[in-house]
């Protein structure tokens, strides 16, 4: 059996989160199944789906030629960089708006904070399905009403 260190515990927990079984981990790290069970009993395997997704992506990329794979990685890297940048800016913007809300004197200040919060939420979390549906419905209901003035008699 290996000496139990904090580093070893961290490795086991991290790997368990990816979907590894407790038995696999006990064999790989030469520790008892009971130790792994106690260490991971309240740990959620929250990276399991991410691992499946990454495996599926790499499997698909293996079918492509080198230039397509390179282009794919460049586009993903660029989009990720932009997404993270805008999320960080939105969070900083929200912190500033929250500070200003503490000093708000009028309802207009509170309404401005509400608009800023909604915009930042959309930036960080994306558009909600309800918002998209409501916007679509609003666009579809723009019916024009035409009033025709036929048969009107002037009373003079």
How does this structure look, described?
The chain is extended. The mean pLDDT is 86. The chain is built from seven helices and no strands. 70% of the residues lie in helices and 0% in strands. It has 156 residues and is mostly helical. The chain has two domains: 63 residues, no CATH class; 61 residues, no CATH class. The chain starts with 5 loop residues before the first helix and ends in a 16-residue tail after the last helix.
Structure in a nutshell:
With 156 residues, the protein is mainly alpha-helical. It is built from seven helices and no strands. The chain has helices spanning 6-17, 22-28, 33-40, 48-61, 66-102, 107-125, 129-140.
The domain tally reads 2
Number of helices: 7
Shape: extended
Helix content: 55-70%
Multimer state = single chain
Order of helices and strands: HHHHHHH
- Largest sheet composition: none
Write the layout of secondary structure elements.
Elements: H1 6-17, H2 22-28, H3 33-40, H4 48-61, H5 66-102, H6 107-125, H7 129-140
Search tags:
156 residues; 7 helices; 2 domains; mainly alpha; 0% strand
